[in-house]
Specification:
disordered N terminus; 12 strands; seven-stranded mixed beta sheet; alpha/beta
Length: 351
Amino acid sequence: MPLLIGLLGACGYGSQAKDDTAAVAVKGEKLSADEVRIGYFPNLAHATALIGVQKGLFQKELGGTVARASTFNAGPSEIEALNSGSVDIGFIGPSPAINGYTKAGGENLRIVGGSASGGVKLVVDPEKIKSVDDVRGRRIATPQLGNTQDVAFLNWIAEQGWKVDAQSGKGDVSVVRTDNKITPDAYRSGSIDGAWVPEPTASKLVADGAKVLLDERDLWPDKKFVITNIIVSQTFLTDHPDVVEAVLRGSVKTNAWINAHPGKAKTSANEALKSLTGKALPTEVLNPAWQSVTFLDDPLAPTLDAQARHAVKAGLLEEPDLNGIYDLTLLNKVLKTQGQDPVDDAGLGTD
């Protein structure tokens, strides 16, 4: 059975789910389901969901079908919720989507849309690391063994011609798997010399004096790579395609609003974070973190496929069969109604 070790979400940590359904008026005709349960993470890479839920943009498209939202702090717990039927649709990172799909033999989920790209940086202590060559021999944190950023860093290390044992993290670079919540403390204490991490952790480290050595966007064609997908239970997709289409319509319209009103969107996302976590991001962290994330509807399928191949190369994933992981039929239908071009599944669709 294919297995990706340490299947943490793109920016998440912990595993507790929290119901955060916004108090939004339910108006209009009910679709084929009484309700739809939407899962996402309370972080900036999931701003489409943060804003779409809090501002009622999903609910507006769903009419009389109630949108019920829950937040998660890790990919595995959201996949478990999807598998158990307590979540129907989820915003999630590429590694847990790949792992969830392969562990279930391709029988549990489909990726039906994209949400965000970017938002990952290599930040370092400028006193110890002044160039790429200086990373060799240093202690660099990633969020967890086998998670999206860990795989990206291991692949980058290999491209430098350096060697690291993926399991232990030992080698020409010491890869230190550190929970994002404590990475800033680890950096301040000097126990790590830098970190390959998602936002807002990267910008928190910069606020503590670190410098950005590399933005992962620069390693990808067109500076885009998937950081957040939209997944759906195959059963729910089969039984309630009209509901899935409505959620996708809400996502597309939310992304359009975000991109048309970036300042208001940033404020709205931060207000949602404060409501969910009890603490808003300070300006010096929020501004650079927000600027490094791109919100888009394209799931950037070729980059997910590349990330899977990087995990195989690192020895963290057996060769996966990703055929059928995408079903972009409804998304492309929505995009057409909005006058936008269709997006591609990189040959990994259901047809």
